[in-house]
Amino acid sequence: MFLRAVDVLPLPSLRTQRLIAAAVILTQGGISVTGAIVRVTASGLGCPTWPQCFPGSFVPEPHAEVPGIHQAVEFGNRMITFAVVITAILAVLAVTRARRRREVLIYAWLMPASTVLQAVIGGITVLTGLLWWTVAIHLLASMAMVWLATLLYVKIGQPDDGVLTELVPKPLRQLTFLTGLALSVVLVTGTMVTGAGPHAGDKSVTAPVPRLGLDIVTLVYRHSSLVTAYLALLVGLGFGLLAVRAPRPVTIRLAVLVVVVCLQGMVGAVQFFTGVPAVLVAVHVAGAAVCTAATAALWASMRQRAEPEPIES
Asked: How far apart are CA 73 and CA 172, in angstroms?
């Protein structure tokens, strides 16, 4: 029945499919940035209930204990969820109508499924009063969705009847996988720094948000050390790719990733030495999303699905 309904839609071109997939990446990464804005403006409880904003109302309403600006910021972040949902649904419809291969369909369906999961995590975050570890899970889930959305974009661009070939030797692919693991550890420790930091998401005096009770300076040093290790792995990978004369698209993606990670490290250093200004928190979260997407793109570039060579008669 679903396929019959989809068949009435226009047949999407490859360009349309990729544009939709790119929009999925932007919305998945964008909502993590707006979530950071909610946190640094102390608007996390601007809508103190979920899925409603206030008991009996899905939209903000005048309330003596909740400033209007906090309501607007939190409610605006919730509204961006609709953009995430719409792009996710469009991705499913586009690849289904185009009769893409099973692999592409699976990645497309992961988008709306993971969006529902994110909404549930967001609700738990609000209902538990912004506990630091729920906020951390919320961000990490967003980064996982950015990773999957990037793979969706890459796989949409590959021919369905193509032959899968390895572009670099197996040890370098394993090293690339290790960089992905290193990135995940960097993200986890980054959320711990946030959990112990000054931006709790709410500034209530009567009900302060519980924070991670660890020394933030120690956490920052651990986090920065892991970023350095992550960068060192990327540099080592770069030497390996040069040694085997890897295809240009692979080396370009690695070069872009190294630049992005260096810029992200600079932002983190400035944050630390300037007292964690709110605007840099949002920039840092955006950088985390870009690093995640770039690492996923590098991982995907290690293999290529190309049209099979014509058989000579």
From this structure: 44
CA dihedral angle for residue 148, residue 115, residue 185, residue 288, rounded to 10 degrees: 80
Residues 48-100 have pLDDT tens digits of: 888 888 888 888 888 777 788 888 888 888 888 889 999 999 999 999 999 99
What angle is formed at CA 27 by the lines to CA 79 and CA 33, rounded to 5 degrees? Answer: 80
The pLDDT score that the predictor gives to residue 313 is 46
pLDDT in tens, 216-242: 999 999 999 999 999 999 999 999 999
DSSP collapsed to 3 states, the chain: CHHHHHCCCCCCCHHHHHHHHHHHHHHHHHHHHHHHHHHHCCCCCCCCCCCCCECCECCCCCCCCCCHHHHHHHHHHHHHHHHHHHHHHHHHHHHHHCCCCHHHHHHHHHHHHHHHHHHHHHHHHHHCCCCHHHHHHHHHHHHHHHHHHHHHHHHHCCCCCCEEEECCCHHHHHHHHHHHHHHHHHHHHHHHHHHHCCCCCCCCCCCCCCCCCCCHHHHHHHHHHHHHHHHHHHHHHHHHHHHCCCCHHHHHHHHHHHHHHHHHHHHHHHHHHCCCCHHHHHHHHHHHHHHHHHHHHHHHCCEEEECCCCCCC
CB-based contacts of 284: which residues, under 8 Å, 6+ apart? 36, 264, 267, 268, 271
- Highest mean pLDDT (candidates 4-8, 118-122, 284-288): 284-288
Look up residue 217 and give its amino acid. Answer: V
d(CA 172, CA 267): 29
